[in-house]
Every structure is written in C-alpha cells, then in structure tokens.
UniProtKB/TrEMBL annotation:
It catalyses: D-erythrose 4-phosphate + phosphoenolpyruvate + H2O = 7-phospho-2-dehydro-3-deoxy-D-arabino-heptonate + phosphate. Keywords: Amino-acid biosynthesis, Aromatic amino acid biosynthesis, Transferase. Its EC number is 2.5.1.54. One of its GO terms (molecular function) is 3-deoxy-7-phosphoheptulonate synthase activity. InterPro entries: Aldolase_TIM, DAHP_synth_2. It is an enzyme of class 2 (transferase). This is Phospho-2-dehydro-3-deoxyheptonate aldolase. Belongs to the class-II DAHP synthase family. It comes from the Bacteria. Pathway: Metabolic intermediate biosynthesis; chorismate biosynthesis; chorismate from D-erythrose 4-phosphate and phosphoenolpyruvate: step 1/7. The lineage of its organism: Bacteria, Bacillati, Actinomycetota, Actinomycetes, Micrococcales.
Amino acid sequence: MTSQNTDTAARAFAELDAYRALEAKQQPTWPDPAAVQVASDELAAQPPLVFAGEADQLRTRLAAAARGEAFLLQGGDCAETFAAATADKIRDRVKTLLQMAVVLTYGASMPVIKVGRMAGQFAKPRSSDSETRDGVTLPAFRGDLVNGYEFTPESRTADPSRLVQGYHVSASTLNLIRAFTQGGFADLRQVHAWNQGFVSNPANQRYESLAAEIDRAVRFMDACGVDHSELKQTEFYVSHEALLLDYERPLTRIDSRTGKLYDTSGHMLWIGERTRELDGAHVEFLSHVRNPIGVKLGPTASVDDALRLIDKLDPEREPGRLTFITRMGAGKIRDVLPGLLAGVRDAGATPLWVTDPMHGNGITSSTGYKTRRFDDVMDELRGFFEAHREVGTFPGGIHVELTGDDVTECLGGSENIDEQALATRYESVCDPRLNHMQSLELAFQVAEELKRL
Ligand SMILES: O=C[C@H](O)[C@H](O)COP(=O)(O)O
Ligand SMILES: C=C(OP(=O)(O)O)C(=O)O
Ligand SMILES: [Mn+2]
C-alpha cells in the first residue's frame, strides 16, 4: 500500500468507527472484554468470506429487481446453528431454495436472485434479555455466535471464542454452497433430483410436472444445438442480520480495487426491526460499507422513518443499494403498507421492496410453541402484492424463514400441521420455519401472484 492508500484506509476506518460512540442495542454482555479483543484480533487476521466484487454484482442484480426486472428470493433459518451446519442440511436448504427459484422463475418469467439466510445467520435479537424455566432464570439464547442454546449457566454465558468458531462454520458452509451451486448440483438438468417431498403431496406433484416441462424445454434446446451452458451453474449469495458488531467490525475490510469498505462476512447484510434507530450504532455502521443493505420495517414505521433511513444509508440513491423488508403482520399490511409505498415513491426514492411475511405473524400455540399459521403468512403475502398493485410500485421479493427439513414448526399447509403435531419435529432454536413442503407451496402461490403483474 502506498502511504496515500494507507491514509485513505485510516480515514475510512475512522469514519466507520463513529458507531462506537452510539448506542448498540441487542449486544451481549461479554463477561471478559479482554477475551473479546483476542477474538476480534483473530477474526481480523482471517481472510474475507466474500469478495467485494460479488457484493457489487449482487447490488446490480438487486437494482434490476428494484426496477421491476427481477425478483429476490431470500430465505433460510431464523437462527443457523453450528451443529446443523452439516452437508445434508446445507444441501437440503440449498435444494429447497433452488426448487422455489425454479417455480418463481417459471411463474414470473423473470430472473430470480437467490440469497440464503445462510453462512452467518448466527446472532439473534431477543424480546427479553433473560429466560426463566421452572423458576430458574438465565441469559436468553442470542444465537450460536454468542452463547449456547442448552439451558445451563455455563452454556448461556456469552463466550467470545464463538465469534471465531462462527467465522469458520460460515466459511465451511459457504464453501459447500459454492461447490453445490457452481459444481453441477444446481444444473437445471437436475431439476427432478432436487425434489425430496412426499410423492402424494399436491405441491410436490405440481413441482414434478413443472420439472418435466423444464426437462422437455432443455432437451429441445439440446436438440437444436443451443448453447445453454449458463444453466449449469447458478449465482447464489449469502446474507445475515448484521447484529453483532463485534463480529462484523473485524470482518470489514478495504477493497483493494476501490479503496472502499466492505463487510466481508456476507454479500448482503440487513438491519433488524429492533436495531434500526437512525441514531443507533447499526445504521451508522452499515452506512459506511458498500454492500447491499436491507432494513426491516415493522408496522410502526412511518414514511419519515423510511425517508431518513434512505438519506442515511443510501444518500446517492444508488439502485440496488437499499432493500426495505416489510414485516407488518397479515392484519395490518393492507392498512399500513400502501401509505408507506406511496410516501417513499412521492419523495422520488426507488428502494427495492421485499416482504417478510413471517415476523409479523408470530403466535404461541396452546401447547406452548412459538409458531405461525401458514394461512397468515400467505395472507400477508397477498396483502403485499395488493398494496403494490394499489400504489403502482413493484413487489420485488420475498424474505422467508425456511428449512429443507421436514420439521413441524408452522401450523397448516397442505400437510395440515396442527397444534398437536408441532411437538413431533420442532427443531428451531428461535423462530418457526416453513418446512420443505410449505416452502414449495408458498413458492407456487407467489408464482401465481407474479403471473398477475
Ligand atoms: O428472529 C427474530 C427475533 O430474534 C425473534 O423473533 C425474537 O424472538 P423472542 O421474542 O422469542 O425473543
Ligand atoms: C430478527 C428478525 O426479524 P425482525 O428484525 O424483522 O424482527 C429475523 O429476521 O430473524
Ligand atoms: Mn426470526
């Protein structure tokens, strides 16, 4: 580095570090600050997980979605865990997203941008700092990057060595995702092989007939001698909530090509509903990195909130830079979203609008499980499309908590999971996820909405 480059880098990091003077909500209480410094130094010495150029490429893809020329599919666990970062589970989540993408691409006849909530989704904001079970109170589980899910004082104590472990688990997850999506697994000729559902399930049968059509189309192209080598690989990006600043900061690096800062822990980072204060540390931090940024907006978000977030996070109004992920709740979306869309549009801003139909629809079952009704999720989705049709803006994508596994965490769907069934395979350590079949079913319904655009 020349001394001029060194100066520029020092200035960029000094600006980034303005966040340190601001309130950072939802951070763990680390018992030993010296150990956090050791972990931070270790992270700072590791290679980046993603390349800045990939984040730029995703920004251009998201810009197309903001213009109405592509659709974002973002999904994965509420909270990834280190233990579940196995080849089978990663493969099944990737498969589920690939299947959904095929359904959506076919339905919308437009490119679908695939972004996993994967390879870094390890830190959770919580409603309460503590959890009480049978009269015993311990710190809440804040994600594997912070503490363990097991309900013991040792496990629930925040442990900064988990930051480093989280980096390595993210690296191996991302490595496998790259292998799957670029090494032949995601070849469109494998469209049948991705299916893993129950033969008799209606979503499964619908998928099989769509896959057969795609097969015929690919064979037709083969017979015509069309070169369609781009069908052999697929672009796949990773994202997570940039919650834990002790993890994000040491992974933020200067891009040698441009001299700009990128948070290299993932391609896209988002700010959660609980940490999106304009004068808070998270908004300040992400305002200084070049990655595409998402912000969750709940039902209390005003037009003014949205416009100020745009001014802070996307002052140049750069296409693809900013995605608003709305999570209003099925009962509220039709009342609150149209005004928000219109207010932002009238101010001349064109962020990408995406729906998260999960987080506004949480309930507790009579049997004590955190759950969501599939019908509420679908209702919010329809409300999202209705609001955009009403205002004339583009419904640019979906953000869902899902897994490739056959879990029983959300009520309903074609398998009719009821309150009693929740207990059979409830595996989430945080929010309930759509299982493989529910995810596919949702994709078909979104495809129907996209066909109406
Ligand atoms: O994923 C989102 C939040 O972390 C989660 O909904 C919070 O859940 P809690 O209300 O159980 O803390
Ligand atoms: C914490 C999450 O969501 P929100 O910020 O919308 O509550 C999440 O996406 O898991
Ligand atoms: Mn969640």
